[in-house]
Amino acid sequence: MRVSVVIPAFNEEKLLPATLASVQAAAATFLSRGWTWECVVCDNNSTDGTAACARAAGATVVFEPVNQIGRARDAGARAASGEWLVFIDADSTPSSALFAAIADEITAGCALGGGSTVELEPGTPRYARSVCGCWNLWSRLTRWAAGSCVWVEASAFREAGGFGTEYYAGEEVFLSRRLKAIARRRGRHFIILADHPLRTSSRKLKLYTVTEAARFFFRMLFTAGRAAKRAENCDIWYDGRR
Fold it and tell me: Which domains are present in the chain?
């Protein structure tokens, strides 16, 4: 068995080293099972030292010139050689326990893929942790994976058409829907793991005002996600603020 960890990265030289270190440590659980693994970082048109950081950590680096998270994840997946793909965001730090839980599901063979609940880094304001908790509940009820952690059988990912280029945010929700349909046809499941949440950065709370964040989320809510088809509506992902 070979697992490919795919990390999209746009101007992530500050947080990427910690992410790569955590991935390296967590991936020991794959090696302990006699599996092999690789790390593929997609440099999504960065203007900083993102690519150099990734190469220094031993990752394979590919380049995607168009700033779009779905394109970056798909470019990384095309370069990956694993039978299973694990997508981790560049500001997140997976634990060994999370990767072990994913490996257990792969071994069991009942799940075609899934995601994980998430937790924000220590020191995050209580209101943000509450919002995160609401998302985790909704994620488990709907079986929508958070983009910061998606794991999937490579053949199913390709059948689903990958993340695609239609959306600039929320593309993981639409991928989750397609993968759930494929799982039903194959007599398998798409599940959200909850015992070992993925820890992720809360930096947007520091970089953007509450008004800026609220403007984005209400825009998505009142257009049923259609606003995510235009890059200018998703500036908090693409303006390069870090």
Answer: 2-202 (3.90.550.10)
